[in-house]
Specification:
The chain is mostly helical. It has helices at about 5, 40-45, 65-70, 70-75, 85-100, 110-130, 135-160, 160-170, 185-215, 215-235, 245-275. The chain is built from 11 helices and no strands. Helix 5 (about 85-100) runs antiparallel to helix 6, helix 7 (about 135-160) runs antiparallel to helix 8 (about 160-170) and helix 10 (about 215-235) runs antiparallel to helix 11 (about 245-275). About 10% of the residues are buried.
Amino acid sequence: MSLWRRIVPLSRNSLVRHYAFKPELPIKWVRPEKICCTRPEKSGDLEGSAAVDLTLPVVEYRDCKLLEEADESVKRLFSMESFPAFKTGHHLRNLMREEVQRHPLDVGSMEARIADMTARIRRLQEIHLNHPRNRVMKVYLKELIDKRKLYLKYLRRWDYRRFEWLLEKLNLVYKAHPSEYVLVGRKYAIRKLADKYCEETRERKLLEYRKQLESEQVTFLEQKIKNLEFILNEQKELHLPLSVSQEQIDAEKKRLAEIISKQKSSLSGSGDQKMIQ
């Protein structure tokens, strides 16, 4: 500690951090829940993988006539239930590709590629949900989602009608990359909430002031009509040039009658609503 601080000690107020005080505004910020980039909420998939009948034979033996005449134990050996899980994945990819294929042998068009990637993405999302610590699968799934998003971007630029048809067929939502990335933080969010609160307070006070002026409008117009009539009569008696005409007074009276009728109709309408409730 320096000699000056030993002679002049710090006061109690100087030890308080004023910049760390909580705001007095009724604003509460809760940090939003972070959603993983591989979840369907981020990727745009509105449904999961289709249900698969595991008793069906694998693709290689699906057209075998001898298998149709075999007994149940042999059929079970050649079914997808007895084969590894990637055979089920191939079956799902073929099903989804058949929905958008241009012809039975189409595997290279943009629609077929996107459908194939969509089937793989949905299959891997279900597996990753059960094994969230598998980092290799997560990285591969993230790359696959980004690649499909890039293909959708190109298709949207080339043929928008085909792009819309494909999204409806595959039940997808296209979520493009944002033009600006905003970091989620308390300081930035509190500023936005404070601006929103100030704007709402301003609108509320202006509305209250407007209602107050509308409630005083009848009294103001009545007093205005009396003053105009007094000025008109005085100028006529003193033979002065007229600054107020009878047409102005009649216009103000008409305006007053319209406001009174409007207020009566609004009061009757609110009364009818209360009776209905």
